[in-house]
Amino acid sequence: MFKVANWMIVSRSTLLIDLLDCRWPQEFLVKLVSAQPSTMAKTLEQHENSLVIFDLATIDLQQAYQLQRCIDREYSDVKTVFINFPKQMDAKFLIHCAITSGVFYSDANLAEISTGLTKILKGGSVIPQELYKSVQNDTDEEDQLTIREREVLQALLSGSTNLDIANQLFVSESTIKTHLYRAFRKIGVSSRGQAIAWAQTHMHEVVV
């Protein structure tokens, strides 16, 4: 006897939800539930889902990021998929290799998405190669940073001066300048503003 999987679609588009509800339950032998971004957490508590699909055409990217982090923290067995993923803006910060199983650009049709979901159902992942490589490169760059360099970059996000950071970490101001210089070189930036922008995208999990 086949086991019915439980999937959730998070979207503000009633039309898309109705369309998928007509296709996917029969095509993939799944039970599909829907949720608004504001009700996702509550819906997850009420249903045992193995996959959550985010419709980025109707969800703000930062909100999608926060919702996925919620899943990662509280539902370790749940995987995520993004549909209508934008090509024209840098949204790769959404991709978390441990939890993201699929990414489909906004020009992907339902047949392409269905083919990808079939692979995901079998335990695979479907992420465009160039996007996956870019995420891996960013991860490599971040991993090269020392713990102290990561702490200093994180401190920049709070608007701290070099002296503030030095006092916070109990080191000299010149030591902080050295850490910043080395960190800037590793992540490929040349200014404080660029470093802050990089940290905003890549260092969500760092806690000083």
TrEMBL record:
Keyword Transcription regulation: yes
A biological process term (GO) from this entry: regulation of DNA-templated transcription
Short name of any one Pfam family annotated for the protein: VpsT-like_REC
Name this protein carries in UniProt: LuxR C-terminal-related transcriptional regulator
InterPro entries referenced in this protein's UniProt entry, alphabetically: CsgD-like_REC, Sig_transdc_resp-reg_C-effctor, Tscrpt_reg_LuxR_C, WH-like_DNA-bd_sf
PANTHER family hit by this protein: DNA-BINDING TRANSCRIPTIONAL ACTIVATOR DEVR_DOSR
All copies of domain HTH luxR-type, residue ranges: 138-203
Domain of life per record: Bacteria
Keyword Transcription in annotation: yes
Keywords: DNA-binding, Transcription, Transcription regulation
Gene3D superfamilies in the cross-refs: 3.40.50.2300, Winged helix-like DNA-binding domain superfamily/Winged helix DNA-binding domain
Molecular function as annotated in GO: DNA binding
Record-linked CDD domains: LuxR_C_like
